[in-house]
Write a structure and sequence with these properties.
Strand content: 15-25%
CATH class of the domain at 25-84 and 99-134: Alpha Beta
Number of helices: 5
Number of strands: 5
Distance between the termini: 30 Å
Largest sheet: 5 strands, mixed
Strand order of the largest sheet: 1-2-3-4-5
CATH architecture of the domain at 25-84 and 99-134: 3-Layer(aba) Sandwich
Shape: globular
CATH topology of the domain at 25-84 and 99-134: Trna Endonuclease, Chain: A, domain 1
Order of helices and strands: HHEEHEEHEH
Length: 138
């Protein structure tokens, strides 16, 4: 991993330049995950920490939904939190910290793959990993 990537500076200059090109040239740096299997895309997932806001009516989310719909892919927002979160914004965590996940569907394709109607359901890490296998047909 490059130093720019580790420090969140990758493409920062390009992003800053793009903002100077005007209000009518909107763009978003796509930071969602493209989940794939056997070289085929299976889903788009926008991961958000539970401290972050989830606005499904935001222009960038609506554009991602449009992209997913055009590709015939499900798209989800997946919120995550850690067992040791203490309400502090963006606390440091490691891969060893126990995580929990909440899946929010954003299009009809996603609703076909996720059958819960309770958005307050938090999955354990093992349950979420099993779901990731499920959307791949495994």
């Amino acid at each position: 991993m490059s130093a720019h990537e580790r420090h969140g500076k990758r493409d920062g200059v390009l992003s800053a330049k793009h903002r100077t090109w005007g209000f009518n040239v909107p763009a978003v740096d796509l930071d969602f995950f493209l989940e794939y299997d056997n070289r085929k895309a299976v889903a788009l997932i926008e991961y958000r920490h539970y401290n972050g806001q989830v606005r499904t009516d935001a222009a960038n989310i609506l554009a991602q939904i449009d992209l997913a719909d055009r590709a015939g892919l499900p798209i989800f927002v997946v919120q995550y939190r850690y067992a040791n979160d203490d309400g502090t914004l963006w606390k440091e965590h490691t891969v060893d910290d126990q995580a929990f996940f909440r899946i929010i569907t954003l299009n009809a394709h996603a609703e076909q793959l996720w059958f819960t109607h309770n958005v307050d359901t938090w999955l354990t890490e093992a349950e979420f990993a099993a779901w990731l296998h499920k959307i791949r047909g495994r």
